[in-house]
Design brief:
- GO terms for molecular function: 4 iron, 4 sulfur cluster binding; coproporphyrinogen dehydrogenase activity; coproporphyrinogen oxidase activity; metal ion binding.
- The protein is α/β, with parallel strands linked by helices.
- α4 packs parallel to α5.
- It folds into 2 domains: 105 residues, Arc Repressor Mutant, subunit A (Orthogonal Bundle); 299 residues, Alpha-Beta Horseshoe (pyruvate-formate lyase- activating enzyme).
- The strands form 6 sheets. Strands 10-11-9-8-7-6-5-2-14 form a 9-stranded mixed beta sheet, with helices on both faces.
- 37% of the residues lie in helices and 22% in strands.
Length: 450
């Protein structure tokens, strides 16, 4: 870590670049009719992915940046699932033939908040309306505090092969400060249940930069998590945006680390995981050497989407549920965010699309450059520009941000072949932003660069 670079770049708010252009560029000019046309034009023979958003939790974690609703009753969840099933019918009716599915991801909220029989019925419905590949990967995000044995069994029966467990921190002081009390025993019990059910790949989510977190507590959490044997880790920096997420006002800002402290915490976690045999994958993921994520990176086949780093290379992503974002070869779409408004749209027999973005040829070029930077810490700009039919100098000549990063020793630029230096990799998002044509218009809803 270089303190001077942290001081210069660390406080900037930059996208995580899980898409390009990013969500602030989405416009209501892209509506349900637009999306319907894009679905009709989607080649059914090309593999696609599904994302299903379940926006409900039993309690609010104060750090949360997701779209979710707190409910202690099951009826709102049942009502929502009725609309979600109807959306499956509406979307599948727009395509020329059933789409071939390679990946399915359930996100939240807490997807496992639904009853086991409801989950199994939803999987059955998806299989009826889409053509699942024999090797289709089904992944589910899980809150270990609420995972019941019956639900773990249902996940196995449904063919779920990957589970992502929220851990964040095992430090009781930090847990109290973020309103998420979760013991190591609860987490290990969830892992044991999932393994027994046949879910053979486990991911843990950890967060740094939380209130009262220290380097020592980050290391202790990582060491405790390693002992539970997950195949992967995702390590995210807490994004404090109380103007955007009102519940974050309950977090004591004075207890948050500065940019230098955040970098120190992130690197301490990384060093602990690497020392335990995990390979660093991109900016913030870690995987065992024999895991598909690590193998994809080694082969230059790593990708990045709304779930972070992934082996999913599908061009089409069908987003289902309130606030869900989807993608076709033509552009991005997002559903209505409030579950009630989403339900009204679906009940009226219309797709729930509220906004989106139509990709231009230049957007596709910039997206490919940014993805390679985020995945490989380097990119051959002239080669990609040629593949997309552009002059690379359009991106390189007069690029002041790129020149500054090179001058500060963060990256090397050899005639447009760019490579992040080892000590500058924590600023990869700053390098990606040098190719973002819209960065100045995206506001302060993003997380800090470090």
């Amino acid at each position: 870590m270089q303190p001077a670079l942290v001081a210069k770049y660390g406080e900037a708010r930059l996208p995580r670049y899980t898409s390009y252009p990013t969500a602030p560029r989405f416009s209501p000019a892209i509506d349900a009719d637009t999306y319907g046309g894009w679905l009709a034009a989607t080649p059914p023979e090309k593999p696609a992915s599904l994302y299903l958003h379940i926006p409900f939790c039993r309690s609010m974690c104060w750090y949360c940046g997701c779209h979710t609703t707190i409910t202690q009753r099951d009826q709102p969840i049942f009502d929502y699932l009725d609309m979600l099933r109807e959306e499956v019918h509406l979307v599948s009716a727009k395509t020329r033939a059933p789409l071939s599915i390679n990946h399915v991801h359930f996100g939240g909220g807490t997807p496992t908040i639904m009853q086991p029989k409801e989950f199994l019925a939803l999987i059955t419905l998806l299989r009826e309306h889409f053509e699942f590949a024999n090797t289709a990967e089904i992944a589910v995000e899980i809150d270990p505090r609420t995972l019941e044995p019956e639900m773990a069994t249902a996940l196995g029966e449904a063919g779920v092969c990957r589970a992502s467990l929220g851990v964040q921190s095992f430090d009781p002081v930090v847990q109290k400060a973020i309103n998420r009390i979760q013991s190591e025993e609860q987490t290990m019990d969830a892992v044991t249940r999932l393994r027994k059910a046949g879910v053979d790949s486990i991911n843990f989510d950890l967060i740094y930069g939380l209130p009262h977190q220290t380097v020592e507590s980050c290391i202790a959490t990582a060491e405790a998590a390693i002992r539970m044997g997950p195949e992967r880790f995702a390590v995210f920096g807490y994004a404090h945006v109380p103007s955007f997420k009102k519940h974050q006002k309950l977090i004591d800002e004075k207890a948050l680390a500065d940019a230098e402290g955040r970098v120190a915490q992130a690197e301490a976690i990384a060093a602990t995981l690497v020392a335990a045999g995990y390979r660093r994958v991109g900016l913030d993921h870690f995987a065992r050497p024999d895991d598909g994520l690590a193998i994809a990176q080694a082969r230059g086949q790593l990708h990045r989407n709304f779930q972070g780093y992934t082996t999913d290379a599908c061009e089409t992503l069908i987003g289902l549920g309130a606030s869900a974002i989807g993608r076709t070869r033509d552009g991005y779409v997002q559903n209505e965010v409030p579950p009630g408004v989403y339900a009204q749209r679906i009940a009226s027999g219309r797709l729930a699309t509220v906004k989106g973005y139509r990709l231009t040829p230049e957007d596709r070029l910039r997206a490919s450059i940014i993805e390679r930077l985020m995945c490989d810490f380097g990119v051959d700009v002239p080669a990609l520009a040629a593949a997309h039919g552009f002059d690379p100098q359009m991106l390189l000549r007069g690029n002041a941000k790129l020149a500054m990063l090179e001058s500060d020793g963060i990256l090397e630029n050899a005639d447009g072949v760019i490579r992040l230096r080892e000590g500058g990799r924590f600023l990869i998002r700053a390098a990606a932003a040098a190719f973002d044509a819209y960065i100045e218009q995206s506001g302060r809803t993003h997380s800090k660069a470090a």
